[in-house]
Design brief:
It comes from Candidatus Paenalcaligenes intestinipullorum. Keywords: Hydrolase, Magnesium, Metal-binding, RNA-binding. Its cofactor is Mg(2+). Its EC number is 3.1.26.-. One of its GO terms (cellular component) is cytoplasm. The chain is of the alpha+beta class. It is about 30% helix and about 25% strand. It contains 12 helices and 24 strands. Strands 4, 5, 6, 7, 8 and 13 form a 6-stranded antiparallel β-sheet that branches. A 6-stranded mixed β-sheet has the order 16-17-18-19-21-20, with helices on one face.
Length: about 475
């Protein structure tokens, strides 16, 4: 399906929106002060080895130590492929040891980045594996003849007994041998530069920084279906065209400058879409809706019929709502960049054919996703479990922070609950101190409740302690905050 890529560039932030049929399907945001780490290569030092977890923490010179599991070690992969026993991590790594690692997952929440010793350098057509002689083809290319043809082309580029391997990317489906050769030579030169830095840099240090967002868009996201890349910055257009001229010549002509008076993102209401993507509720056209809750452990998506009653019967209404939800779910996963474990709670269906149709529709909708996904069958509880590879922060984690009012609970105490806490606190302090008066500073809703429905309890408390209790609204207090002043 034809798509456009819109890029909004400012000195402090770059935002990218992928648009299909006038609707935003994917959003990427990179801030100059918060550049991501995924793809970066570091010379790190082992800070701690944990045999019980078969993992290690590695100092890569960032704020938090990076995490590496036994499965992330190159030696472990070789042993698994060879069918031999796996060597424990404590026999491979030791504290203080230096090694070259690459970030495979961004730091998320309180967790540091995840790293691997299996280095891979991505180009437009190929992925170069300096330590792995394997030659493979992207699973998205499913034509057996084309797969074999591409593999033969790549093998012709490699020298005899060459150590490095290659994976052919989806973008190489229609690539010529010369385009692949240029990509391959570029990646080998890049690896040579990294090795040169490895011999001269102290430990820990950065050996390679991944391309910026605009360059990654040209390398990773532009496909034959991409009609145009529209950018609202002349300098960014020039930089992108220069980079494309060298590495992706076929893309250069599709890069355009947005010269209209109206802001680029306003032309397809991207900012409105971002606001909706930060909401828990997603309305469906039929009247049904989704509720999306994101936690550190997993993400849940609950499907509801809402006001939709358009089916011939209740079962048909449920089936149609679930079918519509599959497309919306696939879009929201891309839009919000939700990753990790995802639980889909469709409306219960008794008809097995309906279940199969919903699952098939879901997989079809997810096939457009550039990120690797895996979907299970319906469980006995009627849930669909799936995973989506998580390599960077979700949209909500990039744009939002934990709520200071509710202490990240997702809810706040009612005004009545706060009133009763205040009364208990007044009684507690009256036993320790003997002021002339107690003055309560609280939010407007709390004070209003004391003056109305809770006025009797407030008066009884004053009579019990034998002291007057006065009220004062503090506009700076949120509903859970209050102060008790002893006068």
């Amino acid at each position: 399906m034809a798509e456009d890529i819109l890029i909004n560039v400012t000195p402090f932030e770059t935002r990218v929106a992928v648009v299909e049929q006038g609707a935003v399907q994917e959003l990427l945001i990179e801030r100059s002060i918060q550049r991501g780490f995924a793809g970066n290569v570091y010379l790190g030092r082992i800070a701690r080895v944990l045999p019980g977890m078969q993992s290690a923490f590695i100092d890569i010179g960032q704020e938090r130590a990076a995490f590496m599991h036994l499965s992330d070690l190159r030696q472990n992969r070789v042993e698994r492929l060879g069918g031999g026993p796996i060597t424990p991590i404590e026999k491979i790594l030791f504290e203080g040891q230096s090694l070259i690692v690459q970030v495979t997952k961004e730091p998320i929440g309180t967790k540091g980045a995840r790293v691997s010793t299996q280095i891979s350098l991505a180009g437009r057509m190929l992925v170069y594996l300096p330590h792995d002689p394997h030659v493979g083809v992207s699973q998205r290319i499913d034509d057996p003849e084309l797969r074999q043809s591409l593999k033969t082309m790549v093998e012709s580029l490699r020298e005899e007994n060459e150590e490095g391997g290659v994976i052919v990317r989806t973008q190489a489906e229609q690539a010529t041998l010369e385009e692949m050769r240029a990509d391959y030579e570029y990646l080998k030169r890049l690896w040579a530069v990294i090795l040169k830095r490895l011999r001269t840099q102290p430990c820990p240090s950065t050996l390679y920084i991944e391309l910026d967002l605009t360059q990654r868009i040209l390398r990773d996201m532009v496909t034959p279906e991409t009609q145009k890349i529209v950018v609202d910055s002349r300098s960014a257009v020039q930089r992108m065209q220069e980079w494309a001229e060298t590495y992706t010549p076929s893309v250069r002509e599709r890069i355009e400058h947005h010269a209209g008076n109206r802001p680029l993102f306003d032309t397809v209401n991207v900012d409105d879409e971002i606001a909706r993507a930060l909401s828990r509720r997603v309305d469906l056209k039929s009247g049904g809706y989704l509720i999306i809750d994101q936690t550190e452990a997993l993400t849940t998506v609950d499907v509801n019929t809402g006001g939709y009653v358009g089916g011939r019967n209740f079962g048909d209404t449920i089936f149609r709502t679930n079918l519509e939800a599959t497309v919306a779910i696939a879009r929201q996963l891309r839009l919000r960049n939700l990753g990790g474990i995802i639980i889909l709670d469709f409306i219960d269906m008794d008809n097995e054919e309906h279940k199969a149709s919903v699952l098939s529709e879901l997989k079809t909708a997810l096939a457009k996703d550039r990120t690797r996904v895996s979907v299970s069958e319906f469980s006995q509880l009627g849930l669909v479990e799936m995973t989506r590879k998580r390599t960077r922060e979700s949209l909500a984690n990039v744009l939002c922070e934990p709520c200071p009012t509710c202490q990240s609970r997702g809810s706040i105490k009612t005004a009545r609950t706060v009133c009763y806490e205040i009364l208990r606190e007044v009684l507690r302090e009256s036993r320790q101190f003997n002021p002339k008066e107690f003055r309560i500073l609280a939010a407007q809703d709390v004070v209003d409740l004391f003056l109305e429905e809770e006025s009797e309890h407030l008066a009884k408390a004053g009579d019990f302690i034998g002291k007057p209790i006065s009220l004062e609204v503090d506009p700076l207090h949120n509903q859970e905050q209050y102060d008790i002043i002893l006068l």
